[in-house]
Amino acid sequence: MKFELTILGSNSALPTSKRFPTAQVLNVLERFFLIDCGEGTQIQLKRFKIPMSRINHIFISHMHGDHIFGLIGLLSTFSLQGRKNELHIYGHSKLEKLIRFQLELLESKVEYTLIFHNIFGKEIQTLFEDETLTVQSFPLKHGVMPCAGFLFKEKDRPRTLKADMLAFYNVPIKNRNGIKMGEDFVLEDGEVIANAKLTMDPPKSRSYAFCTDTAYFPRIVPIIKGVDLLYHEATFLKSEEKRAKKTYHSTAEQAAKIALEAKVGQLLIGHFSARFKDLKGHLNEASEIFPKTMLAEDGKKFSVELDRD
Amino acid sequence: MKFELTILGSNSALPTSKRFPTAQVLNVLERFFLIDCGEGTQIQLKRFKIPMSRINHIFISHMHGDHIFGLIGLLSTFSLQGRKNELHIYGHSKLEKLIRFQLELLESKVEYTLIFHNIFGKEIQTLFEDETLTVQSFPLKHGVMPCAGFLFKEKDRPRTLKADMLAFYNVPIKNRNGIKMGEDFVLEDGEVIANAKLTMDPPKSRSYAFCTDTAYFPRIVPIIKGVDLLYHEATFLKSEEKRAKKTYHSTAEQAAKIALEAKVGQLLIGHFSARFKDLKGHLNEASEIFPKTMLAEDGKKFSVELDRD
Question: Do A14 and B80 touch (CB under 8 A)?
């Protein structure tokens, strides 16, 4: 029952030899959602043993090179691997132009179906929805560049059946789905067994929000309220707050403020400027405001466990 | 007096976590010539501490993704680093289209001058020439895809002065350049001192040939004859010779045959299929025919030393 994020790249525009540009993959029940695709993403997918054939959805936040330059290589590799599954790509309308132009110029045969979905970037938009999960985009603040955050949210689960009680009342299998949905059970003699006797609350649905690149932008707080895990960029330290503002990036402190205001479970900071070899400064600065802060580092995994409280 | 090749990527189309796609850099007297630019090249340049600001010439063999997908990211990084130097890129005419389209679509400001040079690929062509070095391209055989090999050749050096003999005959500084070029020296009393007394043969000029991607193609032998170091692709083993032929690649044995026929100094094989985790098979197969064979591995350096024999 996984809900696990793997960091493929944690750096900002200039990659270092240890930190690749932005890319992450979220494993929700063994479906892998790729988020951003900086140069080298396919290499990191191999390094960290992510099953590439299970990636059917790619979400691209914005059209800066450090978030997209790995996409054409990944699409080509899918082709060489004989991929047949449809691939859905969610991003700015320019992204489709960029990819289609390259495929055509290079005469690359892509045998699978590529489906581009346009993110308008001006409001909350549902990009993906199935029985268990929804993915929405929402606008961030990155200058004139339209830039989207992404919110991954499990749907509410049906109630959990109490196996011993079902056995005790001899509940037939045909009734179980209804009981999961909250129905009571009526015995042959007419006695009503309340649903609360037969079931317990289901595990809480889990959620993840991805916010990069962005200046300090409190308008996102209601959207990401209470998520279990928040990734928020922290390109700079507080000492460079002016530079952060000018370049539409955030400081570690600002990331922590957003986490605090949104009452999230845990904060993960990343998109570090290449100048920082040591990231303790970022961790300390954010942790002072929001103690449950962690550093995004290439290859690290962050799980949200199922919770029955 | 370096003439040193660094392998940045040694794999064929599908990169592995240990072998990046094709890219190399040749250091000739502290000028760095980049050859091919697969995805992740900029990361490898950082990892192996190549001074990026000294790269002013990039040679691209052909328009397959595993040889070019790192170029747009590298050009963007040059921009972010504030590069001002002209950058010369040698490749197929489509390469300029590919790069210009991306820069325009992404509204990337490139403050330095980008100069594209078209490789026609049908004959030997001198791409670069200065006082010490020439770089030529020549056609390889890679199906319908025009594909160029590159030949880097130091020019002949002037003769080496014998310092002790110059002091003995009290040769003025103004005469020395002429003597380096082979002139005799005439003493005040009219006696002629033969050049051979005053100088010795210069070190041999050094050379490197880069041959990938290509089927077995003996027509290149006269072009690369006697080079000190030959890089030749060896995507497959002899057991897959049919597949090599079909995909216009070479086996390790074929690479060695070319090296033997061309009487090169040393052979370096690379562009390995991702299926091979262990490359001993390639090394053994080639070494049987051409003993001075080495494996290209990411990060390895191969020097051609100055030779006075």
Answer: yes
Is B66 known to be catalytic? Answer: yes
CA of residue B210 relative to chain centroid, distance: 6
Statement: residue B172 has pLDDT above 90 = yes
The predicted-structure confidence for B89-132, as pLDDT tens digits, reads as follows: 999 999 999 999 999 999 988 999 999 999 976 789 999 999 99
Q: Is cis: bond before B213, omega within 30 of 0?
A: yes
A47 shares contact with chain B (CB less than 8 Å):
yes
Q: What is the 3-state secondary structure (H, E, C) of A95-160?
A: HHHHHHHHHHHCCCCCCCCEEEEECCCCCCEEEEECCCEEEEEEECCCCCCCCEEEEEEECCCCCE
Which of left, alpha, beta for B40 (phi over 0: left; psi -120 to 50: alpha)? Answer: left
Are residues A150 and A220 both part of a single domain?
yes
| Mean local confidence (pLDDT), A127-137 | 96
Within-domain flag for A209: yes
Round to whole Å and give the CA distance between A132 and A207: 12
In a shared domain, residues B129 and B172: no
B40 has a chain A CB within 8 A of its CB:
yes
State residue A121's pLDDT score: 67
3-class secondary-structure state, position A273: coil
- Give the confidence band of B23 by pLDDT, cuts at 50, 70, 90: very high
Do B32 and B63 have their domain in common? yes
Q: Identify the pLDDT of residue B121.
A: 67
What's the domain range around A242? 3-157+203-303
Determine whether the interchain pair B42/A39 forms a contact, defined as Cβ–Cβ distance below 8 Å: yes
Considering the domain boundaries, does residue A233 fall inside one? yes
The count of domains in chain A is 2
Beta strands in A188-228 (DSSP E): 192-193, 199-200, 207-211
- Across the A:B interface, residue pairs with CB atoms under 8 Å apart total 89
Same domain, A21 and A75: yes
User: Do A54 and A20 lie in a common domain?
Assistant: yes
The ipTM is 0.92
Tell whether B144 is within 8 A of chain A (Cβ): no
Antiparallel, parallel or unpaired: β B229-233 and B192-193: unpaired
In a domain, A309, yes or no: no
Distance in angstroms (rounded) separating the CA atoms of residues B147 and B141:
7
Position A47 in a domain: yes
